[in-house]
Design a protein that fits this description.
With 222 residues, the chain is of the alpha+beta class. Helices cover 54% and strands 18% of the residues. The longest helix is centred in the middle third of the chain and has 23 residues, at 103-125. Residues 1-5 and 78-82 have low confidence and may be disordered.
């Protein structure tokens, strides 16, 4: 039974990072027979953790390509299941404050909150080299429930000075849907936490992509 659960977890993790995949691609990547993969996919679909769409791949019959549902993404959060309950409470609290204070004032409060968070990040990251600060930032985000990682994207500089920070889920997805400006504040937060860098959004879960991505480049580059 443990093997089955492990394989299903590997399927979910693969889809989280790749966005989508066919049964054959999953079988090859995970070194599992196509028949076994299809059984696991059927189970995961029944649990509403994945969905599929039929895609034509040139010549030959179309294939099902699988991707995570919102429920599947929630299953892969780093934090325990209590995260969902906290998010619901936070969303209800924000709704109440909006009704009491008005939307404009609520936006100002959210902006101030993200500025405070950026200051906290900056203090915790210190004045270390950029790669070390990014490693620390990823640890902070992971502790908050984000499936985060980073990697260098320039081979011309040693040590590298240009990176991509990727988050494969949103730990506050319900709140962000209700208050979309939070995503803009998050971009500002990363820029403020890394004041010697240029931070640009490259991918966005809100736009239907399977991850949020940020290009982070040392401002003195070039």
């Amino acid at each position: 039974m443990s093997i089955t659960l492990t394989t299903k977890q590997e399927i979910l993790d693969y889809l989280l990072h790749q966005g989508q995949a066919s049964a054959q691609e999953l079988a090859q990547a995970l070194a599992v027979s196509p028949q076994a993969i299809r059984r696991h996919l059927k189970d995961l679909e029944a649990e509403q953790l994945i969905r599929y769409e039929v895609q034509a791949n040139g010549v030959g019959r179309p294939h099902n390509h699988y991707s995570l549902t919102d429920i599947g993404r929630d299953r892969l959060r780093t934090l325990p299941n209590t995260t969902s309950g906290r998010n619901e409470f936070a969303l209800e609290l924000l709704d109440t404050l909006t009704e009491t204070l008005g939307h404009s004032q609520m936006e100002d409060i959210l902006h101030q909150q993200w500025k405070r968070k950026a200051a906290t990040y900056r203090q915790q990251l210190g004045e270390k080299p950029l790669m070390e600060r990014l490693a620390g930032l990823v640890e902070l985000r992971q502790a908050e429930g984000y499936r985060a990682e980073f990697f260098p994207v320039d081979g011309d500089h040693q040590p590298p000075q240009k990176f991509v920070l990727t988050e494969y889920n949103c730990a506050i997805a319900n709140v962000a849907k209700a208050f979309p400006s939070i995503c803009d504040h998050e971009l500002e937060m990363f820029a403020a936490a890394l004041p010697d860098c240029q931070v640009t959004r490259t991918h966005w879960l809100v736009n239907g992509e399977h991850r949020c991505g940020y290009l982070i480049a040392w401002a003195g580059l070039g």
